[in-house]
Amino acid sequence: MSFFALLLAFLAEQVRPLPRSNAVHEAARAACRWAGHALDAGSRGYAVLGWLLVVVVPTLAIWLIGSLAWSVHPVFSLIFHVVVLWFTLGFRQFSHHFTEIQFALARGDVTLARSHLQEWLRASGDTVSAETMTVPEICRTAIEEGVVASHRNVYGVLFWYALLPGPSGAVLYKLAGIARQEWGDRADAFGEVARRAFYLLDWIPARMTAVGFAIVGNFEDALYGWRQRASSWDDPQRGVVVESAAGALGVRLAPVSGKWQPPAETVDPDLVGPVQPASAASEFTAAAEAPDEPARLPDPATLHAAVGLLWRAVVLWMALLLLLSLVSWAS
């Protein structure tokens, strides 16, 4: 049933996309703000309690409702799964920004592309200015935002949905992400707890997303970017996702010291970071060697390739979920 619920949720979202500012997400953000204020006693224990209240308690409630729906009739359970997934998935929440930028660049309207990108960055809570970005910088930023948004709104949700019973896993991951957005910039215990909790929940999904990009894209370059460049990012999880996508697309997306720079003609050790020593536990060591050619600059054609990469990854994980569902049904 998980596969069919996910398929129906994807179709429902394509027909009727969930607005970014919807009542459910706004209620979750309001709960985070309330807990962050009411329980702000300067204690880590209160911060953990706040996180449990806004993330774990709703997750348990969703699990209980899902169990009750299943006990009544499987059809009610299917409907409940689809509704919850519709509120937790969000492919269309960012894809229209991507499409608008792509169309603007195709018409040669760089100013309009900057405007669409700035709107996207503002909606994502990013303070980066797109006013003076060149075309390669616009493409780089759009691809980075797109692959990160697809991971956090699709692949991460899908992973936890498949792992935990009912739709509770999808709710857990989504609420943890909202808590990180609301508290992540704080320098107190709430910020620390939110960042650490989401880091732990996102550790495996980020690497599963990277593997997916490698499978449906350039395998060796994706693994090379993951292993050699991701650790240089301020947010290593984001680095894993972005660098694997960059390698899969054959472009360079890594920012250097917080500012994007075009790739050099040769691989600079200062840019890719130190080479890790080989070991038996290394991930795909043989495949993760340095690519033969330097990565190229991202361009408007890369945006089209990125859309294809994201959809192929969705199809890959949907196929794996279907396989798991068939195995579960057969056993």
TrEMBL record:
Family annotation (Pfam families): CobD_Cbib
Transmembrane segments: 46-65, 72-89, 158-176, 309-330
Name this protein carries in UniProt: Cobalamin biosynthesis protein CobD
Subcellular locations according to the entry: Cell membrane
GO MF annotations, alphabetized: ABC-type vitamin B12 transporter activity; threonine-phosphate decarboxylase activity
Membrane topology listed for this record: Multi-pass membrane protein
KW Membrane (keyword) present: yes
Origin species: Pigmentiphaga kullae
InterPro entries per record: Cobalamin_biosynth_CobD/CbiB
Keywords: Cell membrane, Cobalamin biosynthesis, Membrane, Transmembrane, Transmembrane helix
